[in-house]
Amino acid sequence: MSDPTRPPAPKIIAVTNQKGGVGKTTTTINLGAALAELGFKVLLVDLDPQGNASTGLGIGAEHRKYTTYDLLLDEVPLSKVVLTTDVERLLIAPATTDLSSADIELVSNEKRSFLLHDALRQIEIDAFALDYVLIDCPPSLNLLTVNAMVAADTVLVPLQSEFFALEGLSQLMLSVREVRQTANPKLRIEGIVLTMYDKRNNLSRMVEQDARDNLGDLVFETVIPRNVRVSEAPSFALPVLEYDTASLGAKAYRALARELAKRGSATSK
User: For residues 185 and 211, what is the distance between their CA atoms, to the nearest angstrom?
Assistant: First the structure.
């Protein structure tokens, strides 16, 4: 039962696809930056052992004293894990390769699927006054991804505009259904966002048509183009919105943020 004395909880979105190389981390970083640009306060939770979201936002390994590993396995308070970034209103709970052993260590924990859920509902999260929490999941359906789904209100799926793109989606949908039936009955699909889209390419258009025919309104109107600026931005530890604010990629992520905010209950500030 919710506590009426606490402020409204942030909307928690797990960004996930068990297939790697689909633009998952790129989408998490840039959607977070675009939501922050709209005036929302956003926390990015790096749950990928590769820690690319942390690196992509300029958080060097030497600054990651406490990470999401500590948050989950050692119950370190959220206030010690969360760091500011160079993007105003965008915070991050960073990750390191320590997370790669979390699956094995979590197996013996009775609450193994609820650790992130509980961590993101600590009373001290109220002090951050968050509107959104975006969880960057690992590219696999493991215990970390299950933790993200149990903690989340919704799931956002980046879908690469390439052959076989829809094949792995059915397994992900089954995993969402299983989590809904066993641990998080309120979990729903936020939407599918097409990434690495090339409008000059017949295959991209075919994948889009296939996705919209099969998934209807679940597919965001906004598509993320294949754009060199989006690919370059992480090497400068910047979201594309700051690396090249006028690029097609930056414009697309701004459009996605507006569409997401319009779909949800949050109000632009």
Answer: 25
| CATH number, domain with residue 32 | 3.40.50.300
Distance CA 130, CA 116 (A): 16
Residue span of the structural domain in which 223 resides = 11-263
Residue 102 scores a pLDDT above 90:
no
Paired with 191 in beta bridges are: 156
Q: How far apart are CA 268 and CA 38, in angstroms?
A: 6
CA distance from start to end of the chain: 28
Q: Write the burial class of residue 62 (CB in 10 Å: 0-12 exposed, 13-18 middle, 19+ buried).
A: exposed
Does some domain include residue 65?
Answer: yes
pTM of the entire structure?
0.94
Q: What are phi and psi of 104, to 5 degrees?
A: -65, -40
pLDDT score recorded for residue 107? 82
